[in-house]
Design goal:
Helices cover 50% and strands 0% of the residues. The protein has 94 residues and is an all-alpha fold.
Length: 94
């Protein structure tokens, strides 16, 4: 389904009403193979979404890398780092 949607023009950087991207949803669910699909098929969207900061329920800001670390998914952490996930986000870029 993900491949079909991407083929039709969807992007992993599209966010919902709370600012959470499809990319972040997959990271939150530990869906390594789906994140890999995004990274391979939607390179433009993934480059945008990989460092997108979301503030869930007005709590602590999180990036996909922080989500993967919080979930304890080393494979996903390494995958994100290999594709350019920033280890820190400064205020100016946020």
């Amino acid at each position: 389904m993900t491949k079909t949607l991407l083929g039709l023009g969807a992007t992993s950087a599209q966010a919902d009403i709370n600012g959470v991207t499809a990319f972040q949803q997959y990271v939150e669910e530990n869906a390594e193979s789906l994140v890999k699909t995004f990274l391979e098929m939607d390179q433009t969207g993934s480059k945008t979404a990989i460092n997108h900061v979301v503030v869930p329920d007005y709590g602590t800001p999180q990036t996909p890398l922080q989500m993967a670390v919080h979930k304890g998914n080393l494979g996903l952490v390494l995958q994100l780092l290999e594709h350019g996930a920033a280890t820190e986000v400064d205020f100016e870029s946020w």
